[in-house]
Amino acid sequence: MVTDDNAADRLPGRREPNSHCVRSSQDAPVPSSAATDLRAAGRGARRSGRGIRRHWRATPWLFLLPGLAITLLFSLYPFVNTIILAFTDAQVLGGGNFTGGANFSRMLHDPQFWTALRNSALYVVGVVPFLVLLPLLLAMLVQRHIPGIAFFRAAFYTPVVASVVVVGLIWTWLLDSRGLVNSVLKALHVVSEPVPFLTDETLLLISAMLVTIWKGLGYYMIVYLAALANVPRDLHEAAEVDGAGPVRRFFSVTVPAIRPTMVLVGALSAVAAFRVFSEIYILSGSSGGPAGADISLVMLIRQVGTGLNGELGYSSALSVVLFVLTLGLMLLTMRLNKNEEVA
């Protein structure tokens, strides 16, 4: 029997689809106007999605904008402006003619600059070795888990959170000619006359170094504690099995494991020591020692660049030199740290 596939289409009562209707996914007739509305809504949703995506791409920059504005306004702009002023004869009350390298040439013939550079270099030499070694010994002592050790950790760290001005004033009272230190020395008949800790050129610089070391011990102790916690215990146990004593384990296991941290501490303390200001300024009563003999580079920058007759151009040139020397210290440290990692 031959069947006609289109016979059903010729059945009585069969209605052709209306030209004004379309079939939906469920074969239900949907008016063409509704389909147009659906397509328009889809296009609107897609446009809205693109807008949302654009909005989300811009959101991180909106959060960063306040920080970027502050950085540009208070860091980048002053840095660039200082470099520009270094090549001018700008004064506090006006001026600013381009002078080329005149400020740097003047610096080479300025005895006060060489005195400040010498004092800053001596400060680095006198402070850095102690701030590398003494905090490490303190960290070795307080890393042990014994009753009451938390008190000593807090005591060693207390000077770090104290204001440098407060610390400087305390040490000024201690080292004064009528202060506690001289009173104790005289009571013990160690000295007959007060020791000029704050008025002698050499003793003033040494006293400032002691204040810097005392204040920085706790900070670098925490850095070393974090490094010591990462030294594998297995290495100490293996060295102990081989018969190595505490001193041998310290030099053969601990020091090699934390050598990158020691380089980091040396770099941070060297940069901070080279930029010393508060300790010498407070202990000397803002004079920089007798006839300014203990003045540092930062103190010289402040002295030259402030006041009604301040020379902003020369002060900026000194700041540029300080920046270059500090950058050189950091690059040297990075080179040493890289060599340690390769080794």
From TrEMBL:
CDD domains: TM_PBP2
Xref: SUPFAM superfamilies: MalF N-terminal region-like, MetI-like
Region: Disordered, residue numbers: 1-46
PROSITE patterns: ABC_TM1
A Pfam family hit: BPD_transp_1
A GO CC term assigned to this protein in UniProt: plasma membrane
Gene Ontology biological process terms, A to Z: transmembrane transport
Alphabetically ordered keywords of this record: Cell membrane, Membrane, Transmembrane, Transmembrane helix, Transport
Keyword Protease: no
Identification of the protein by name: Sugar ABC transporter permease
Organism the protein comes from: Solihabitans fulvus
Taxonomic lineage: Bacteria, Bacillati, Actinomycetota, Actinomycetes, Pseudonocardiales
